[in-house]
Amino acid sequence: MAAVRVLTHVSRVPRPGARPSTAVAPIAFALLVACGLGCGRTSPPGAASGGDAARGAVVFALAGGCGCHTPDGGPPGAGGTEIPTPFGTFHSTNLTSDREHGLGAWSDDEIDRAIRRGELRDGSVESPVMPYYRYAGMSDHDARDLVAYLRTLPASPAANRPAEGELPLPRLAYRAWRLLFAGRTTAPAEAPAAGVERGAYLARHVAICGDCHTPRDRFGVSIPALEHAGVPGGGPLPWAPNVTPDRETGVGDWDESDLSNLLETGFTPEYDNVQGAMAEVVEGKAGAPGYARAPASDRAAIAAWMKTIPAIHRVVRKDGADPAGATAPAATEEKRA
Amino acid sequence: MTQSIRSTSGSWARAIAATALVAAIAVPATARAQAAEKHDGHALPAGPIHDRHEIMEDMGRAAKAIGGALKAGKPADAAAPATDIAAKIDDFLKLFPDGSTGHGSRAKAAIWSERAKFDSIGADLEVKATAVADAAKSGGDVKAASNAMFGDCKSCHDQFREPEQGE
Fold first, then answer.
1. Is there a contact between A86 and B33 if contact means CB atoms under 8 Å apart?
2. Which of A 302-331 lie inside 8 A of B, CB atoms?
3. Which of A119, A144, B3, B90 makes the best surface tag, with the fewest CB within 10 Å?
4. A239/B165 Cβ within 8 A
5. How confident is the model at residue A17 (pLDDT cuts 50, 70, 90)?
6. A159 and A79 in contact (C-beta within 8 Å)?
7. Contact B10, A47 (CB under 8 A)
């Protein structure tokens, strides 16, 4: 950090004779550095210790078994799954209790900060591929229990792999991204206990439905006006259907039992079964629990909440031929139904 | 206990950081977005891929009708759609000639390399669908029979159908 501060200091002094056009970049860079170092500070850590691992298993299931972190064939949480993005190809990290490659040597607070604030042990900020900004609203209690559960994952010696094709200066970029785009989400001490409120909480901050079902802008930021309105295929992001209650383009003609049934069995009302990523979060991966093993009342709460979100009329083509595109809300054909 | 992500930046800092990020991200991201706009939009041409797709759509509608009958507490209404599924599967299995891939088909190569297994699930589906129809006509346990039949749907999809792109 000291070296960066020096760089900041030097960059603030214009070189004699430097043309304004060449001076802009270093100044912008310096401000970005200063901003990244000084403006993205987070609140002090909460007490993440003393969680209940059994209850944490339920949180883990509701988080789709943290499926990104489990490789095909397991073991659960060992990481290494390839995640292609427009900003490089990332590899999920090892969450198991291995002391060298996993979280075994991390404190409870450190794990909590990584999940909910995107902070790593060395103080750097995670890439937004890890949706910490959605988990930021996870209750203190749920986070504490989730951490306790993660500690029970048998150690895997799988080494973490660096991303490929990242942006230049990734540490700065991710810190700036958090500053600009992560938003300010306040976590409750306790999650809502039941009903639509609980469904909203689970969908937004634990199951994080919108992370896959919402298109992103060119900065990788989910577009709020199109939350849950689907992502077209053929682009840099995986296809995901519109799950808003629009009757024509979404799931508006599904009733709550259809929705909760999919979260339990993976079957649509036509008894087609979801495959791929959705199947992984429903069934869990490599024996780890997914939505199917969460309490039925929680699946029902998510289903009830899904009936309450805004219906967005938006065709999401699987083949990428969608004139709407994935990243340009102004050019899309969606409208609020 | 409450945690939050906080920032104390002024708007100037956001503006400058945004500018820097634009420089870092916008160009490559735009290039990739343009590259991604290629598409394979198409209507299925006449032939086995089209025909089997149509049959699968019909079977989906029939399956939905069975689910609807169960939800409505009218299990007897499952008889007709179950009979429909049992009647269609034989034709469906004949619509996978060698080389019938492409055009967005999600058929896996395993259909041809493990043809006997593929056909056996189809044959079992006919048995299970007939059992649903029989249960519906005789006041039997339609739900249990249906779940057994739906298990064949899933089993075959998981083994012989590619996930949606990116799914």
1. yes
2. 317-321, 325-327
3. B90
4. yes
5. very low
6. no
7. no
Q: For residue A65, give both structure tokens.
A: 């078994």
Residue-averaged pLDDT of chain B: 82
Report pLDDT for A47.
61
Give the residue among A80, A91, A126, A106 at the shortest CA–CA distance from A286.
Answer: A80
B41 touches chain A (CB under 8 A): yes
Residue A99 identity: R
In B37-78, alpha helices (H):
48-71
Q: Residue B28: left (phi > 0), alpha (psi -120 to 50), or beta?
A: alpha
Q: Do A272 and B60 touch (CB under 8 A)?
A: yes
CATH number (3.40.710.10, 3.40.50.10890, 1.20.120.10, 1.10.10.10) of B48-160 reads 1.20.120.10
Local structure of B112: helix, strand or coil: helix
The C-alpha atoms of residue A188 and residue A136 are separated, in whole angstroms, by 10
User: Is the ipTM beyond the 0.85 threshold?
Assistant: no
Distance (Å, rounded) from C-alpha A186 to C-alpha A116?
A: 10
Least confident of A246-255, A271-280, A295-304, B42-51: B42-51
Local confidence band at B16 (pLDDT 50, 70, 90 cut-offs): low
Rounded distance between C-alpha atoms, residue A329 and residue A153, angstroms: 41
Q: Which residues contact B17 (CB under 8 A, 6 or more apart)?
A: A31, A32, A35, A36, A176, A179, A180, B9
Nearest to A179 among B9, B28, B154 (CB): B9
Name the maximum alpha-carbon separation found in chain B. 75
Give contacts of A234 with chain B, Cβ < 8 Å.
36-40, 165
Specify which residues A336 forms β-bridges with.
A312
Phi/psi of residue A84, nearest 5 degrees: -75, 135
pLDDT digits (tens, 9 = 90+) for B35-44: 333 223 347 8
Yes or no: say if A114 and A107 are a contact pair by the CB < 8 Å rule: no
Is any Cβ of chain B less than 8 angstroms from the Cβ of A35?
yes
| DSSP state for residue A241 in the 8-state scheme | -
pLDDT at A326 over 80: no
Show which of residues 195-254 on chain A sit within 8 Å of chain B, judged by CB atoms: 218-219, 233-240
Closest residue on chain B to A86 (Cα): B29
Domain map (residue ranges) of chain A? 53-181, 195-324
Q: What is the pLDDT of residues B137-165, one digit of tens each?
A: 999 999 999 999 999 999 999 999 998 76
